[in-house]
Amino acid sequence: MDKALQTMIENMPDKTGKSLNEWKSLLKQKSFTKHSEAVNFLKKEHQVTHGFANTIVTLSKEENTMPADLVHNQYKGKENLIPIYNKLLALVESLGKDVTITPKKTSVSVIRKRQFALIKPSTKTRIDLGLKIKDKPTTDRLKNSGPFGTMCTHRVQLTEVAQVDNELKGWLQEAYLKGE
Predict the structure, then answer these.
(1) Which one-letter DSSP state was computed for residue 179?
(2) CA dist list (Å): 79 to 55, 90, 123, 135
(3) Measured at the alpha carbon of residue 87, what is the angle toward residues 83 and 88, in degrees to the nearest 5?
(4) Domain total in the chain
(5) Do residues 48 and 42 make contact, with C-beta atoms less than 8 angstroms apart?
(6) What is the rounded CA–CA span in Å between residue 24 and residue 40?
(7) Do residues 44 and 124 both lie within one domain?
């Protein structure tokens, strides 16, 4: 997730009086046909600034594009990677109730206040798991972030379910704890 967007989401309760999830719930109760209608509603009825209103509506729409569809599209032609993805997802969900899993067009962000992991089917035979663990040395398995750039500090390449093991779980837990 873009750093500016993440900051905006974190500041939303203080600046607007509600969290992003609370705004999303409010918008679900309404049936706006146009983006601008929802933005104007938030601005006029709730005194939300244009920037926050636009962000809330945009992120609400992303959620309505059905996360399952986004994930399904990521794994088209890469179905053999789905068991690895499912095991990773179960592991991530076991870390805590404050974990948010956000499918995007080409990856899945894992967030706890901040993004701490990123799951991306990079090739037909490999999932790249990006982790954010500041000041952690790299190893043969826990590599530098590579194509993830500054979104993550490290990357683990996964080609089989057995690689979602205790060592990987330890790294995910470390990233989760630092993602506060």
Answers:
(1) T
(2) 33, 18, 11, 35
(3) 115
(4) 2
(5) yes
(6) 15
(7) no
Per the structure block, which two tokens stand in for 1? Answer: 């997730």
Tokens 């499918």 correspond to: 103
pTM, two decimal places: 0.65
Tokens of 149: 């750039």
Token pair of 122 as six digits? 């990079």
Q: Evaluate whether 173 touches 131 at the Cβ level (below 8 Å).
A: no
Residue 100 dihedral angles phi and psi, to the nearest 5°: -110, 130
Instruction: Give the relative orientation of helices 50-64 and 35-46 as an angle to the nearest 10 degrees.
Output: 130
101 and 170 belong to one structural domain: yes
Same structural domain for residues 72 and 149?
A: yes
Which range marks the domain in which residue 79 is found? 68-178
Separation CA 50–CA 156 (nearest Å): 39
Residue with tokens 């194509």: 147
Kindly state the DSSP code that residue 104 receives in the 8-state scheme.
-
DSSP 3-state of 107: coil
> C-alpha 122: how far from its chain's center?
16
What gap in Å lies between CA 83 and CA 13, rounded to an integer?
37
- Are residues 164 and 75 part of one domain? yes
pLDDT tens track of the chain, all 180 residues?
567 788 888 899 999 999 988 998 888 888 777 889 999 999 999 999 988 998 898 888 765 555 667 788 899 999 999 999 999 999 999 998 888 888 888 899 998 888 899 999 999 999 999 999 999 999 999 999 988 888 899 999 999 999 999 999 999 999 999 876
